[in-house]
Batch of 2 targets.
Target 1
Amino acid sequence: MDAVDEERLGRRTPVRRHWVKLAGCVEPAGLARRRVRDALAGRASPDRIDDAVLVASELVGNALRHTVAGPDCMCVEIYRHAAVLRVHDAGRDVSRVRVCSVDTSADRLAEGGLGLLFVRELASGWAVRPTAIGKEVVAVLALGGDELTEREVLLYIPAVRASLTADLHQLDGPHGEFDIRKSTEP
């Protein structure tokens, strides 16, 4: 493997992955904010951590407001240059997940809010995708000072991904964390 391939692989392999089970949690947005702050401590500037905390709060809040059961789980994947936040819920209608503009009427904003507008402004990119048992909303945030290009963002949002909930249920307890580097070493 040459240096270019190794660098590309390094960008696509998470250094750490933090899971948080949100289903049945009394205050899922608060738990998500704390876990994102803890996961990114020492890996990003305080301003970028605040941005990631706000994005996580908005994604979880949207799942609470716009789905019957609320969010199932959240995953924070930390790469060398980016953090990827994934919030999964059982709602299947991905067409309802859209950004309102600041020019949207007050009545429409009261119904939908500005959450995804904040996500769009703070994240390098975001997407919503159906899963086998619902949908996930994914936001990619650069950890350094430079924003990621659209092409770089797509590296962190693969076209096909297994359900977060299925992955989460393989862990013991309500949430977990593991170091990818340690788990893949022989």
Target 2
Amino acid sequence: MSFSWSRVGTWVVAFVVGAVYGVAGTVAQAFMLGWFPLGLVLATVGVVALLVAVRLLTGDRWTALAAGMGVMVATLVFSGAGPGGSVVVPQAAEGAFNPGIVWTVIVPLAATIVIAWPESLPRMATRAQESPDAD
């Protein structure tokens, strides 16, 4: 792996995009549709889709890590109490389901899975070797 400014720029862009998704997910995760945590589901799907897309499009674990760090930093920053005392992620009542806790656990877990995913699966590599070239 050699150093290049375009690679660093890609990491910065991935971090910023991850932060935007993190802010949106942190704000939206508390939305409940009756008993169903619709905001949490949509936020999780969005972040996982972002991380998978970044990993597949760039083929780089470091870029996926930058996007994941952006999501995690935004979640950390916006999960606390603001300077005026406002809280974006409220504490649930005792014994009630708390989507905020699930959100803070699922984001790093999703990032870890996407980043740790192998470069290629053995089955895929075998099929690529067996298929004849169309040239």
